[in-house]
Please model this.
Amino acid sequence: MEYRKLGHSGVKVSSLCLGTMTFGEPDQNSFMHQVGCDEKTAFAIMDRALEAGINFWDTADVYGNDGLTERVLGNWFAQSKRRDEVVLATKFRFRMGKGPNGTGASRYRIRAAVEESLRRLKTDRIDLYQVHMQDNDTPEEETLRALDDLVHQGKVLYLGASNYAAYRLVDSLWTSKAQHLSRFVALQAQYSLVSRELEREHVPLCEQFGLGILPYSPLASGFLSGKYRKGQPPPEASRLAKWKDRLSQFDTPRHWRTLEVVDAVAAELKATAAQVSLAWVLRKRAVASVIFGARSVAQLEDNLKAAELKLDDAQLKRLDEASALELGYPYEFMNRIMGRW
Model:
């Protein structure tokens, strides 16, 4: 397993990050209903992930019902006594309580959110605490000052952002510098062969300011796993069989063209489509660790091989060209004149 620095921080994390959104069996009120795995399976996945060298795990308070996934992780930490072997990341921002203050990134909300996560996770600290999405109703300085307090208290070690617009992320970094507050070291964002919008603004931004990119959904909800074929119904029990609206969004010439090249490269390397798709993201600029999910130990084993898979420059170029995104203005203009943007 390769280990990389998490942005400009000194902590090192595995190039693959275990995403835990599928851990636990939520009820029908959760969007993850019938998509998760039971606690016993989750324990087996965590055991094997750590054995394979994956020391970086990501979760969030909203995964499952009422903090279900955080509780599953907390139970594993209590049973295994291996908490200090894991760089633990979680997130807050979305609704977890009633009333107007049961959601958001205000100081009021953060104070409650962190204590609830610590209790569920059965730990004394969160290694990477991430704002799950920018809160336009709360001044960024208020959010950062509350998070900075948690760092000084030792309840949080590092800070991260997720689902931030580029303008807000730059404003946040400037505010941290000007006000001498702890700053973000990482950006968690959707990034895959079929979702490359991040390359317009966020990738250059993260390179310039030293943020490690943590791509989530690198297999595009399973579309890039090799399970799906044009004109054929999705396999039963697959995630996109349940989320048919999302599957319809992938039904475009660009996406099927991309999948064809993924399959071709996979055949050349005697690898799976999922492994090739993960290996592509691992080669991209500023990426610190790629978050992947697994509902079984078998899925975990398949994804682990991506850390060792080497795409040559020609294969990388074919994948880049097949999945190329229209940059739009002003990026196309700058790229045409200077060869970059």
Residues 3-225+272-312 form a domain with the TIM Barrel fold (CATH 3.20.20.100). The chain is about 40% helix and 15% strand. The chain has one domain: 3-225+272-312.
